[in-house]
Specification:
The chain has 303 residues and is of the alpha/beta class. The protein folds into two domains: 54 residues, no CATH class; 239 residues, Vaccinia Virus protein VP39 (Rossmann fold), CATH 3.40.50.150. The protein contains 14 helices and seven strands. It has a seven-stranded mixed β-sheet, sandwiched between helices. α1 runs antiparallel to α2. It starts with a helix and ends with a strand.
Length: 303
């Protein structure tokens, strides 16, 4: 903090002169601008760190795999933004974003289409009936998570983006949400619809941040279509560019070289699901040693 204050002081002296004279011409305002930008950047980073430090132990236990500070900073998420979070589920990221975006921000949940859920084996009639009121149900739940000083909340379902939401968001986060959309693309165009909604909801210059279980290039294409949880980076980039997004770059933040699946493996063998080792302590220990999946982290922009 001392270094930060000293740097700000130095920049202010550069902008205002050192002998009490009148302010310098407008051309000397660049150091002042730089100082303000640096202050904002450091403040935002510190705010996010504080929010992360306040999360429950079971949430913080996942930081070693999910790197939320580095991930959100890579995507450029800042307080006061309007952010769409796809498939918010139980709120792991939502409960971080709500206090971080703050009372000037908005968090918008976006769920899969109800008819897409009908493709899942677990989707009972009761489950599908509850999905009819997901927008209002999730909004009410997220408002409770937000609490005093947290972001406002809203929601929509992919394929049903309200017209009034077009061009309103600063960022869309697709975190571990694409594989199921890709899995059922052939049956209902769900991936295309979700990406189009992501494009339409963003203002010009808005960004999409993607974190997705990544299949390595040497894996068969027909294995990496979403059924097993994994997608190839080339496929994801191609789909995004087809919609009209510009690819800004990738990060190794969420890489995990220990995750080396074979064609017999699914991503849900790994934590936190541990779906194949419930009754096998040795296998469970092996999966825990690998950790969560190898993930691509990609950033795109709407022109």
């Amino acid at each position: 903090m001392y270094k930060f204050i000293s740097l700000i002081g130095t920049l202010l002296l550069m902008g205002c002169g050192q002998s009490g004279e009148s302010p310098a011409p407008a051309s000397a305002s660049a150091p002042m601008k730089a100082a303000k930008e640096l202050a904002t950047e450091i403040t935002g980073s510190a705010q996010l760190a504080a929010v992360l430090a306040s999360q429950p132990d079971e949430v913080q236990a996942r930081y070693v795999y999910r790197h939320p500070q580095e991930t959100l900073e890579f995507f450029g998420i800042e307080p006061g933004m309007v952010v769409v979070e796809a498939l918010p589920g139980g709120g792991w990221y939502s409960k971080i974003l709500l206090p971080y975006l703050g009372e000037d921000g908005v968090l918008v949940g976006a769920d899969y289409a109800r008819d897409m859920y009908a493709n899942f084996d677990f989707a009972s009639e009761e489950f599908l009936e509850r999905k009819k009121t997901w927008v209002s149900d999730w909004t009410a739940e997220a408002e409770e998570w937000s609490g005093e000083g947290g972001a406002q909340v809203d929601a929509f379902v992919f394929g049903q983006l309200p017209e009034e939401m077009h061009g309103t968001a600063d960022a869309v986060l697709l975190i571990r949400a694409l594989h199921n959309l890709a899995r059922f693309e052939a049956t209902g165009g769900y991936l295309t619809a979700a990406l189009q909604d992501s494009y339409d909801v963003l203002r010009s210059g808005g960004v999409v941040g993607i974190v997705q279980h990544q299949a390595r290039d040497n894996m068969p294409d027909d294995w990496a279509v979403g059924d097993n949880g994994y997608l190839k980076q080339q496929f994801v980039v191609g789909m995004m560019e087809k919609i009209g997004f510009e690819f800004l770059g990738s990060s190794d933040i969420n890489k995990n070289e220990l995750d080396q699946p074979t064609t017999d493996d699914i991503v849900w063998r790994l934590p936190p699901s541990l779906g194949t080792s419930a009754d096998d302590e040795e296998l469970r220990a092996a999966m825990m040693a690998i950790g969560e999946s190898n993930r691509m982290t990609l950033k795109f922009r709407k022109p």
